[in-house]
Specification:
Layout: H1 13-20, H2 23-26, H3 34-54, H4 58-77, H5 81-108, H6 113-139, H7 149-178, H8 188-191, H9 196-207, H10 216-233, H11 237-262
Amino acid sequence: MTEPAPRRSQPTLAEIREIGQPHSIRSRRNAEHWTAQVYGRRISPYLTLVALRLGLSANAVTWVMLAVGWLAAAAVATPGWGFAVLAVVLAHLQMVVDSSDGEVARLTRTSGPVGIFIDKLAHYTTEALVALALGVRAAGGWGEVGDHLLWTTVGGLFATVLLLNKVVNDLVVSSRAQGGLPPARDAADVAAPRSGGVARLRRAARFVPFHRMFHAVELCTVVAVAAVADALLGRDDVTRWTLVGLTVAVAVTGVGHVLAIMTSSRLRP
């Protein structure tokens, strides 16, 4: 009589992909960043395997994601195009870690509200800090902040409006819950504005998707392009005008976001 094969203490890469990346997760309409589809879900299983071998919990991996995002913001605040490029690398790394923490949670069956909270905290604080850091960079760095308060003020305004724009989606969830309604379906017909004018503006935004610039990866990329341009030109004008343009864009996006929600079915039974 043959003895059963010993059970593996750690999953294989194939098992990580099967259990940690189910179709229900990869097909979500809004929850997957484009980097996950392009390369993140191909790389993350290797990181997940390392995390499992080290005995890290899913929440611990999410805290690592938060730390990487904050490092990206610190790089944005540091003068020089090299640090701006480093911020882009760190922002992409954050997205890979973001894929990994969910895989660890599904493999260890430890998904829960604490992990969701830390994940949201990581994304919200990273993007707000990158916006603030852009104001510091536009001022010339931490040593120049006192002499260029205008740019740090604009950076603070940018960060505030960006955060408000992100919080709006959470306000929909809490408003439905407090109103006694179940969570809204994550479907295009629910999010679609019923007003013809708003719907046309929303469709137009797909051709010029500037509203997508306010994720950490896109923000850091825009900052890096501006930093390289400034290095070539020998001044800080591109970074400063980029900050102004992003602040105007996020304000327009925020108004459009609220209008789209109010004219859709997201707040209705």
